[in-house]
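Box 4.2: Ligand-aware structure prediction
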Amino acid sequence: MLASYALPVEASRGRRYPEPPHPYRDDFQRDRDRIIHARAFRRLENKTQVFTRRLSDHFRTRLTHTIEVAQISRTIAAALHLNESLVETLALAHDIGHPPFGHSGERALDVAMRAHGLYFDHNLHALRIVESFEQRYASHPGLNLTFEVREGIIKHSHDYSATEHPELAEYLLDQRPPLEAQLIDHTDEIAYNTADLDDGFEAGLLKLDGIRRGVSLFDRYLSQVEKEFTAASAKLKFNEALKRMLNHLATDLIDNTARRIAESGVQTVEDVRHHPERLAAFSPATDAARAEAKEFLSRNLYHSDSLRPQKADGEKIVGDLFAYWLEHPETLPADYQERMGEQGAPRIICDYLAGMTDNYILDQHRRILKR
Ligand code: MG
């Protein structure tokens, strides 16, 4: 049973190119399946989440991170009686526009584009992927996703200004997205804040004492676990504490969002859209704990000396190849060269690089620049 403020599939604004209904999957379920079968989705397997050259086969890739976000999102959507199929689709699509080498690749592409008065934004790139780069249907370009899925791809993490983005006018930029899309930014953070503590600890880059001092939510649960399981190994205690921390974040997001919905008086998805602020949110205390964990990871993992060489490598490879293809656009694949007249070389090169997996861009760099 959906809540009155959920988005029922019957209320969808539909697809760009109308299609007959499927006999046993609704439109949001079909969109989920279209994302899973997309080439860009399969490439997530070989795109960095945090660690590039894997120190171990156990670390998250962007694909396993995406699956974890989908799992957490479904659980929270079900507890709030939101549309689980829409939430799952948006979770599976949320990182589809990410370039190789994680945030270093993203930054390097953006720097290269800014030299031409342009920029790189992974949400806008994700929309280009599902609208035009994925070619699976004889009858139309792209995946022909429903309006709400395309809207969620754009609006799940932040609002875009209508004056800066006239090309996005159809996505109701003056309105909040439905709650199903609002959840994703928070479930993404729950997933990576806990997973990156896990992978960082496993990699030996984060020490238990440091995590305890820097992440009070983790410390609270580890103290609890130490009293309950005196004989358990240190790693099992770590896992148990981390699981409780994840559960705390998810439960708080459910409870606090439900409270905000009740207090706001919103009844329908149109009320959600016209409410002055997003309603999906952690409580102030848990939001502070979330921010503390994120800040700890930023300082001690993402910007640590240990990860600096792999980040510098990634940025250099993206920058080198961007510069090479600007000088030698005739060596780009034919279909990219065809679009160059219309969209300009920088955008086309950016699209090409952003689509690459870590392996493929490393191969290209070795082959072309002999390094
Ligand atoms: Mg993510």
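In the box above, the bound molecule is magnesium ion. Residues 234-264 form the longest helix (31 residues).
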